[in-house]
Amino acid sequence: MMNFRTAATVVFVFFLSIMAKAQYTMHKMVSVGYTYQNQSFGEVGGKLLFLKNDDVIYRLGGSALMGSAGSKFAIMPKLQADVMLNFEKNVDFYHAYYLLIGAEGTNKYIAPKIGVTLFGLLDLAGGYAFPIGDTRLNGKEMKGLNINLTLNIPTVFIHDMFK
């Protein structure tokens, strides 16, 4: 049973969230791509893009890496967080490219990464994966060079395409 202090906190947070003005806009994206991590994996997932202005953009995502490891089909869940930076001012064409800094993690490894993204839609990033403990995927060690090529498709675009 909830005591008074917990109930008051929940009510306070509820009213505070109603009165607060949103500072960031959020956009949903579907992502598909290729990941190399000692094996080749296909990637399918979704991302949320948060932006206040177009100089600094934040992105959170989750996906599934699917491929063959140790001659067996394997699927790994992946979470990632990215920051996209472009401080170029007074440009005619709105920020065509961004510096991409981020990290991704699965149940087998954690990999910081750096790369570039074109319009926030096409990403090319690389990094180094550090294994979590002594975990392996079908006997294959998941450490070393990590390369990602990802296409991010805004759901608004998909919705408009099928109208």
General description of the model:
It contains 2 helices and 10 strands; from the N terminus they run αββββββββββα. It starts with a helix and ends with a helix. It is mostly beta strands and 163 residues long. The longest helix has 16 residues, at 4-19.
Ordered list of secondary-structure elements with their pairings:
Elements: H1 4-19, E1 25-36, E2 40-51, E3 56-69, E4 72-85, E5 97-106, E6 109-118, E7 122-131, E8 136-137, E9 140-141, E10 144-154, H2 155-161
Antiparallel strand pairs: 1-2, 1-10, 2-3, 3-4, 4-5, 5-6, 6-7, 7-10, 8-9
Question: What's the quick description here?
Answer:
It contains 2 helices and 10 strands, in the order H-E-E-E-E-E-E-E-E-E-E-H. It is mostly beta strands and 163 residues long.
Give the integer mean of the pLDDT values: 84
Low-confidence stretches: none
Kindly estimate the percentage of residues that lie in beta strands according to DSSP. over 45%
Question: In oligomeric terms, what are we looking at?
Answer: single chain
Strand pairing plus helix content: what structural class? Answer: mainly beta
The major sheet is characterized as: 8 strands, antiparallel, barrel
Work out the number of β strands: 10
